[in-house]
Amino acid sequence: MTVLKGAAAAALYGSRAANGAIVITTKSGKKKTRKGLEIAYNTSYSTEQIAGRPEYQTTYGQGTEWDTRYGVFGSWGAPYAAIDSILHPVGVRYPAVFPGLVGKKVNYEPFGQQNYDNFYQKGYVYENALNVSGGSEKSNLTAGFSRTENKGIVPFNAISRTTFNIGGNAQLSNGFYVNGSLSYVNTNQTSPQLTSSIGSGPSAIEILPWTPTSYDLTGYPFQNPVTGASVYDRFGVDNPYWSVRNSPFTSKVDRYFGKFTIGLDPLSWLNIQYTAGFNAYTDRRRNVNGRGGEVFPNGNITEDNIYRQELDGNLLVTVNRDLGPNWNLRAILGNNINQRMTERSVVFGDGIIVPGIANLNNTRIQLVQPVPGGNLVKQRFFAFFGDVQLAYRDFAFLNVVARNDISSTLPRNNRSYFYPGVNGSLVFTELFGTRPKFLSFGKIRAGYTIVGNEASAYQTQTVFGINPGFSNPSPVNNASPFNGVNTLTQSNRLGSNTLRPEFIREFETGTELRFFNDRIGLDLTYYNKISSAQIFTVEVAPSSGYLTRVVNLGRVRNAGIEIGLDLTPVQLSNGLKWTAYVAFTRNRNIVLDLGGPRELTYNSITGTIGSMHVVGQPYGLIRGEYYLRDTENNLLINPLTGKAILADRQGPVGDPNPDFILGLTNTVTYKGFTLSALVDWRQGGDILSVSVAEMLSRGITRDNEDRNQVLVPPGVLGDPNTKLPILGADGAKKPNNIPISVNEFYFGTGAFAGSQGTADEFRVWDATTFRLREVSFGYQLPASLLKRTPFGSASLSVSGRNLWYLAPNFPKYMNFDPEVNSLGAGNGQGFDLVAIPTTRRLGVNLRVTF
Amino acid sequence: MKIIKIILFTLGLTVGLSGCNQFLDINVDPNTPSQPVLELLLPATQASMVINIGGGTVNRTATVIVQHATQNGASRFDFSGATFQANWNSLYADALNDIEGIIRQGTAGSQWGYVGIAKIQKAYIYSIMVDLWGDVPFSEASKGDGNLNAKFDKGEDVYTALFTLIDDGIADLNKTPYVSPGTVDLFYRGDRTLWTRAANSLKLKLYNQIRLVPTQRDAARTAINALVAGGQLISTNAQNFQFQFGSTETPQNRHPVHISEYRATKDFWMDQGFMERLYNADDPRLRYYVYRQTNNAGVNFTRTSNGYGGRFTGDPTGAPADNAVRATVGLYPYGGLYDNNPITALPVSNTFLTNMGANSPAAHRIVGTTDGSGAGIFPMITASMVQFILAEAALTLGTTGEARTYLGNGIRLNFDAINTFTAAPGNLGTQLPTATITAFTNNRLAQFDAGTADGKLRTVMTEKYISLVGNGIESYNDYRRTGFPTLLAPISPLNPFPLRFTYSLRELTTNTNAPAQNQLNKPVFWDL
Lengths: 850, 528
Prior knowledge:
The structure holds two protein chains of two kinds. Chain A is mainly beta.
């Protein structure tokens, strides 16, 4: 595996390496193998547990405003101390199904913590891998097999992965060499559905924590004994236990990839080779909404078959020649052709006939569905590139790269784009005749690289969609054909036939220093990167006839430093060694211009939250609703309600970009023993956490257990119509004097933390996190001990991952792990909607070779 | 050297292939057409228009404001920029965008049938938007990247432009050659005489709407008289401008209110005040409008233990878990169930709402997706509404005709429409005998006769209000214009009575020419 930092990698690997590349070179057969190392076997077993869980309050049961009320997702009801028993909630909702529970009383007591704890189970990861390699001078072969089984912490959540690979190379007698590899990976996954808003589907993970604290989720029935339907306290939501059993999402992925290389060295300094590669997978996904659920009482099955294929051809002509005793020239000329294609079809089967059989044949009626993004998506590019490196001895390097891509995804006039780069490095310690003692190695480097990038397929046109759906406020949308008539509607995304390629211009400089015989090493990097004409889908005013539009954005700057510090504080002659590695990264980004507008919104996740860019501010701000304030930044409080007043528009409510990330690894080795620990610290970066906000609103944790009080949020009284402070007779503003209950503080329109109407600015938390990411202890058996055994080497280790974390700026009793980031990748950053909680792993690993 | 030749050949091949433009000319989306197809666009605009206006939050909220049914937030006037934005966004980005496409493409290809229908639909949508939001983007809307920040036109100016647009639409329908869109027209199957009636009735509705604007009063009177004289208004229920939903669930063609109410969760409670109004006024439509899931509803509302369990408007208390027991929407107009169960303690003085023919024993049920056809209607402009409008205009503007006659026709036509709906395939229920309808109508006419001038208008508007279940928007317009019927004060409102709706948060955030958010207490231009 090779890590290529920064944009410099892009010439050889194309624009997809604009932010650097990690090149994983799969084994295609090594040179001659050594006895005792021909077979390697690795096995490991880890247990997996939920990493953090909310701490439940034990004072109040289900209801609102101290009033016991069935069917609500709120634990704002009567205190446990006030009532001995209540009617069995299941008997109240299902008198006909459970006649025995009608009129039955159950103790009124807190079940919140055990409801949560009992649901999540202990999972495991069991991995076995066998690798074989062997060969001669002329040819060799490797083969491997591995299997991983993972039982998740959510019931019925499981993943298994099986891998085969084979590779080999041969030197032919006619001068050619060939190598190739082929891999097959099969992944089977069953997981609970994750939907992100109440009532729109059976999402066990989302609603589990909201379960009213006085409802015994573990003990009460979850299923109708006759029909098999879900049984739960709240309407419109499936019981989590029922949901994980009856409404699974399954995915079966078969991935196969490989490459074939043929080449020769016609001259001692000339190498020519061609590599043809493929990478393809099929993903057969099936989403089941079990029969008897609340949202889809008839049940349904959606089958989504995805086929993805990438073909790549790469020609490299490499010249590697010494120019005199001190100079070396390495020049690569190449050509790259690439095609990516996705074929996808979705069939929806409505009305499950026999519960438990997840097959489209088992549905009453089937309908082919429109595929998001299209059934067939294809894009191609070809490129010519060159990479010339001039080296003076082993310490001065000058590298010039250039690449020209021609992409199918851009309009014809703009689809060919050229991007060059230059960078150099100098090991300056080699310049000194006698270098200072303390400095064992010193290198400086600098580079300036441009990288161009293409669009996605079909962004240049505005298309029409066949038989669209029509959303309505009910849980199920309307669909076409309508009354037997087929329909067509223009897409809400306005394409752009003037799209240009995007470019990143990066200046990077750095130094690598090692002191005191490598006891201290320092790697320093500074970069300044300007992205221009970034291809982006932004939102437009609906009155234009469209909701989004593809544009070339203005300019964005990313500047930052990366520091790697390598320390060896202790290195004794008896073999005891302590090393420490500190990694620090800090990036600052700023939107310089947006090609006209001062701000642009994009990536709407719900009706009120999404992302936005604002000129002069960091990239990709969290967008949401906020409350009105007066000129002195006091919240305006509605005198009718005692709550805050929403502003007209959305605005930036958080910056998801962290201030810095610091990682510290300490490793102590002694005679085959290795003890290592990794701690990291992420400072800043906001997250809009819907799950924390919801839990606050539901009143389930100790965070809002203290309810024998009224709250008067700071602010001044304001008029919701004029949006101005209300002035008294003396012309002065009136400070808020309206007390509200704790329940009101956390719930409903204008609330000050939580959900269900709370402005998004009060749903954002600083995600600073301290974490003990990994601790491991290993032992490598000494060779002397293995002499008489068939083993070449053997090692044993135990490790723990994600052992401890602290996110101090989140509500304390949530024990929230900000790394649960359901929208971490892609354009949207800084949102936690609904995800399976993070886990803590404890495991043991054994590796032997023979 | 042979090897070099092979390499050069390979190189040549790749370069040769690369040079080929055909290799790269693949960026046309093969999955969807890039050109509009009129006969596919038209039904999409119709479904989109009706689902957003009739089935969307705007009509649901209007329904709650006028207390045909109730919801927690809406009945307390708890509105924000997020409340109505789905409908606003979709009306512009789906319905109106495709309508403009039809007008453009159809005009270029002389497809006047499509163009005429599209213009009438456009006028209907914009008139509703002005009624609900006041000033809206119109003259600069739907321009794509030609204008991304459309200005908001004054509601009054939009109305003026709509009268012209309707006339243009009628003129287009009369151009030759007329090629009928046929069955792809989900309203009238391409019948241009019916579209002309719908267009004229829309004009009637709009002129009556602006009758309080002093400068428009005389023009409205003249125009209404001309429309009456022209005889081309919707005059029978078969001519109704209404959307017929389907009964299939896959694809989902049912009335959105049926989808949301005939399941375990519900979007509405029936409004306690409205149910009691019908009950106390001896109105037999109660059995069609409301279905009781039990005869003993009462988690928190044992006030009427006859199964008519709803909530009073503006109730601030949390939602009770009464989904399985509360009364819900009935057969008309959403395609649910007809309530043929006995009503306990029904006064003997009642002559219209009776227990005659009711099931014995009662057969209440907890409604689910299989109950009723779901083939509801969204009544946009019906023959009954036309008569009520003429009654109002006759009373207030002195237009042609007798208000009393119009009132009688309006009531009768509504009952006839309910009877026809009841008899439609898939629906089950008892039709009201003609004698009952006549007697009921006469009863209401007697009320009209006994009233003062104000009382006469009250009777007309109250009867219209009761007949308008399913179209809360028109009732909301009527209430703002006339102040009738008398509505109950919400128990605990969070805002003043809304005289207009809030704009789309997304529009305000993305359109640099957007004004400040609407103030709920500011009336629209015709509400004086």
